[in-house]
Amino acid sequence: MKKLKTFPKGGVYPNDNKELANSAAIRNAPIPPVCTIPMQQHLGAPAKVLVSPGDAVQEGMLLGEASGFISAHVHSPVPGTVKDITSVVLTDGTTSEAVIIELGGEFNRSGKNIQPVEWRNLSASRLLEKIKEMGIVGMGGATYPAHVKYTIRKGSHVEFFVVNGVECEPYLTADHRLMIEKTEEILEGTGIIRKILKPDTVLIGIEENKPDAIAVMEERIEQKGLDFHVVPLKMKYPQGDEKQLLKSLTGREVPSGRLPIEIGAVVSNVATVFSVYEAVVFNKPLIERIVTVTGSAVTNPSNLKVRIGTKISDLIEECGGFKIRPKKIIAGGPMMGFAQANADSPVTKGVSGIIAMPAGEARISSETPCIRCGRCIRACPMGLSPAHLYKRIDNRHIDAALKEGLMDCTECGSCGFVCPAGIPLVQGMKLGKLLSGKKRA
Ligand code: SF4
Ligand code: SF4
Questions:
Q1: Distance separating alpha carbons of residues 84 and 328, to the nearest angstrom
Q2: Given a cut of 60, is residue 441 above it in pLDDT?
């Protein structure tokens, strides 16, 4: 058998626990009576609110306008009335201004027969404009505005467009289901992005634990006579991290502090590609996404199509509630996600999963001193020395930590996963970055 590609340095092998939800077909979550729509759902400047309390809004209407070069529009997921404009706590613990909408009136999109647009007749610049108009952002977690990513500087050339179907975070199955159930749409979306970027090669990277997704993608590509290449990848975390994925697929390394375009590559997650398809072909803004609701504490683990602004607690209820009392609720994956103090935060464009774990499944370890075992160093895919950086940050030697590569940390969580002393290494890296006043590149 051919050796599967992977990245060379570090990485870990957590139990993937995907069997809880990977055979659950995507179904619609109920539309909530009240939606909470944050203006900060993307990397960059928050959107500027365009509505006021008392205003009537329609499904898909612009609620917030992108307010800078790196920013994205925000649309209303439902028709109704603006009840309030307030501050909310997001799943990552930050706060954002949000528009609260009480459901009411007619849906002008859902359930209606919307004529598809023939995107092949549109120019590359019009396609890019549409992606901007519809508020599309990276849905694998990074939430980088897609129109910014696809705007290629004069003189730059895209050699590789990579569709990221790795979904290496344990438990999550939203992308897996999307690849099986929306294969054609993802391939069309890939074609749209190819028309914009004009890459030499299109690669679709999928981890080996999704053989059905690999098979269906390969089959449809062959049937359609497309020159896209599916590349099965070794199961190793964090295979889906943009930088590791590029190392696995192209052998190239993104230089420190730089973006993939500097090695001639652009990467987009499959959920983003699907949203690009819907935005261009059906003029659909990013008002819903697939969310995996799973973990051993959940009665019926599911993959739900969810309106942005739905509360986490509503999704758990839709999955039959808890069968065991959860010890920990996480938004996102267990490696990079955020523990939730309650289930009140709304789903935003970057939330791909909600995981509820009972005691025993949740890793809650008490911290003991470092035993200098070196496991964190061996696990780090970026070649950093997490124990050392942690100590620097703990002592507030931030400049020294920066010199030693703090900003190269992708916050993948591999170091904390292997640490026998239960040292919160990733939290330390995040704190260090915060103290340095710099944002992750
Ligand atoms: S979280 Fe940062 S330091 Fe830790 S393994 Fe990942 S990249 Fe390395
Ligand atoms: S893995 Fe934990 S105990 Fe081992 S060297 Fe790193 S920080 Fe210290």
A1: 31
A2: no
Question: Does the CB atom of residue 244 touch ligand 1 within 6 A?
Answer: no
Closest atom of ligand 2 to 415 CA is 1
The Cα–Cα gap between 61 and 77 comes to: 8
**Domain 114-282 superfamily per CATH:** NADH-ubiquinone oxidoreductase 51kDa subunit (3.40.50.11540)
Q: What is the mean pLDDT of the chain?
A: 95
User: Distance between CA atoms of 105 and 404, rounded to whole angstroms?
Assistant: 56
For the Cβ of 12 lying below 6 angstroms from any atom of ligand 2, the answer is: no
- Give the Cα-Cα-Cα angle 36, 39, 43 (nearest 5 degrees): 125
Nearest CA to ligand 1 atom 3: 386
Q: How many CA atoms lie within 13 A of 151 on its CB side?
A: 13
pLDDT band for position 142 (cuts 50, 70, 90) = confident
- Is a pLDDT exceeding 80 seen at residue 185? yes
Residue 438: pLDDT over 80: no
Q: Tally the C-alpha atoms within 13 A of residue 400's C-alpha that lie toward its C-beta.
A: 11
Tell me how far apart the alpha carbons of residues 93 and 75 are, in angstroms, rounded to a whole number.
22
Q: Where are the domains of the chain?
A: 114-282, 375-436
